[in-house]
Amino acid sequence: MHKLIQVRYQNNDEGIIDDVTLNELIMSNKIRQFYRPSENRWIDLNNDSIRIRANGYMGPERRKSLKDKEEQKPDGLLSRFFKRRSTEKALSAQDWFEQGFAHLYNMADPYEAIRAFALSIQLDPSNARAYLNRGIAYERVNNEQQAFEDYSKAIQLLPQDAKVYYVRGMLLWRSGRHSRALADLKKSADMGYKLAVDFFTHREIARSWGSQSEAAFRST
Questions:
Q1: Rounded Cα–Cα distance for residues 161 and 51 (Å)
Q2: Cα 17 to Cα 179: distance, rounded to the nearest angstrom
């Protein structure tokens, strides 16, 4: 089982993420702190002695840096052969995406899905679908902040996809941020996404029933 880590985002929301996503969030400055069990305390990213002493740190981004340097070293024919065989066996971004999709929708294992999508993103940061589906997985494990971050990244990469606006809008709606939700849902509806259109149709019906029905609709 891969390692799960508790983090604090820049807005002070907390959530559980996997170790691959942690490195991604550190590099993009999306979090303020993470909890390090070995020290039994929250680590401030601006004052982390282990990360400051980079030569001794072996976290994901440090391992990647060392691997890149190692691959640049000249080597012999035999080592190049084994390196090529190893590379051939490695999973591609699409392979990891398909694994994540299967874990999320066929096996109902959101944590394994999260890690697979994270590895897909690591190999192909432009894959909007990986962000979208990882956001859905994070929403299923109640990390709404990371779901929001992933949906927002998917929108940035694929701004003409009506579904992504709808998914983010519904997340915002369920968390009570109705004005922001309506902006996303309206954009999705304007682009012709049926579920978004239905949302506004049902909302108008609720309004016609009176204020009590509208309040009940807002609670859904």
A1: 38
A2: 28
Alpha-carbon distance of 19 to 6, in angstroms, equals: 10
Exposed/middle/buried for residue 182 (C-beta within 10 Å: 0-12, 13-18, 19+): middle
3-class DSSP state for residue 92? Answer: coil
pLDDT in tens, 123-176: 999 999 999 999 999 999 999 999 999 999 999 999 999 999 999 999 999 999
Q: How far apart are CA 188 and CA 160, in angstroms?
A: 9
The answer to whether residues 24 and 16 touch, using CB atoms and an 8 Å cutoff, is no
Residue 160: strand, helix, or coil? coil
- The pTM for the full model equals 0.76
109 φ/ψ angles, rounded to the nearest 5 degrees: -120, 85
Residue 199, CA distances (Å) to 106, 124, 159, 176 in order:
27, 33, 21, 16
d(CA 147, CA 103): 17
Bridge partners of 4? 18
Return the structure tokens found at 80.
């190049």
Q: What is the pLDDT of residues 86-122, one digit of tens each?
A: 444 589 999 999 999 999 999 999 999 999 999 999 9
Residue 204 CA: distances (Å) to CA of 174, 198, 209, 210, 218: 18, 10, 9, 10, 12
Query: CA–CA distance from 29 to each of 10, 140, 205 (Å)?
Result: 8, 24, 43
Q: Are 167 and 135 in contact (CB under 8 A)?
A: yes
